[in-house]
Design goal:
It is a single chain. By secondary structure, this protein is an alpha/beta fold. It has two domains: about 5-75, Hypothetical PUA domain-like, domain 1 (Ribosomal Protein L25, Chain P); about 80-250, Alpha/beta knot (3-Layer(aba) Sandwich), CATH 3.40.1280. It contains seven helices and twelve strands. The chain has helices spanning about 25-35, 95-105, 125-145, 160-165, 185-190, 210-220, 235-250; strands spanning about 5-10, 20-25, 40-45, 50-60, 65-75, 80-85, 110-115, 150, 155, 170-175, 200-205, 225. Helix 2 links the parallel strand 6 (about 80-85) and strand 7. The longest helix is centred in the middle third of the chain and has 22 residues, at about 125-145. It is elongated.
Length: about 250
């Protein structure tokens, strides 16, 4: 199914019996008008929650495409969920981060506006950014074969996001602090304490780093400072490094 064009159908639109599906809205237009798929073509549909299906187009209108389900598959969720608290960088770097985070299997992204974040957003602008980033996450899922669609939350202040997070077994903040340690040492301590890690959180600060006050907030919410090495990394590099080492150590990939 990997070689077929992929289109998203929300879980609520999947038929219980699984014999047929319907593409509508933007996905239908993209399938029939942009990709020029027509009756008889095979495509892949996925629900963003692990289910995918090889389908054949059996009918099209200007607004919908009816699909016959030929084969279904289920991709299990990662054994360890991974959430990202990401300071919003300037320019288009956030779009790139969202795309790559999807490829690395992030479950949720919480964009944050810190004291040293250059980007400033009001509520209306933040909502537009959230919509755009969620759409980019979907496009990344379609392109890379990821069957789990992460949730991209609305940008908010670092303090607001940290206060509203769900529980995690392990919370880490990438930090240039004297007591920052490498991930292996952090996980070793966790294992010696008998702690099982099934959910983790990674916090990445802005180019100018988190302020001392923000580090205190992170520590108050259970974040452990992690070193990313002796070289100061750009925001997007730090994010990819952190997600990669967490995926390797916690998920075995």
């Amino acid at each position: 199914m990997g070689a077929l064009a992929r289109f998203h159908i929300p879980p609520s639109h999947w038929q219980p019996a699984g014999g047929s599906l319907v593409l509508d809205g933007d996905e239908a237009r993209h399938c029939t008008s942009v990709m020029r798929h027509t009756v008889g073509d095979e495509i892949t549909a996925f629900d963003g929650a692990g289910v995918s299906a090889r389908c054949r187009i059996v009918a099209t209108t200007g607004k919908t495409a009816e699909l016959e389900v030929l084969e279904t598959a289920f991709t299990p969720a990662p054994a360890v969920s991974l959430s990202l608290v990401q300071s919003v960088p300037k320019g288009s770097n956030m779009e790139w981060i969202v795309e790559k985070a999807v490829e690395l299997g992030v479950n949720a992204v919480h964009p944050v506006l810190t004291a040293r974040t250059v980007v400033k957003l009001d509520k209306k602008e933040a909502a537009k950014k959230q919509e755009k980033w969620q759409r980019l996450a979907l496009e990344a899922c379609k392109q890379c074969g990821q069957n789990w669609l992460p949730v991209i939350h609305a940008p908010a202040s670092f303090q607001e996001v940290m206060a509203g997070l769900p529980p995690h077994d392990l919370r880490i903040i990438a930090a240039i602090e004297d007591d920052s340690r490498h991930l292996k040492a952090i996980l070793k301590d966790r294992a010696e304490q008998g702690g099982v890690v099934s959910s983790t959180l990674l916090c990445i600060g802005p180019e100018g780093d988190f302020t001392p006050a923000e580090y205190l907030v992170a520590r108050d919410h259970g974040c452990v400072p992690m070193s990313l090495g002796p070289i100061i990394l750009r925001v997007e590099t730090a994010t990819m490094y952190g997600l990669s080492v967490l995926g390797h150590e916690l998920r075995g990939s």
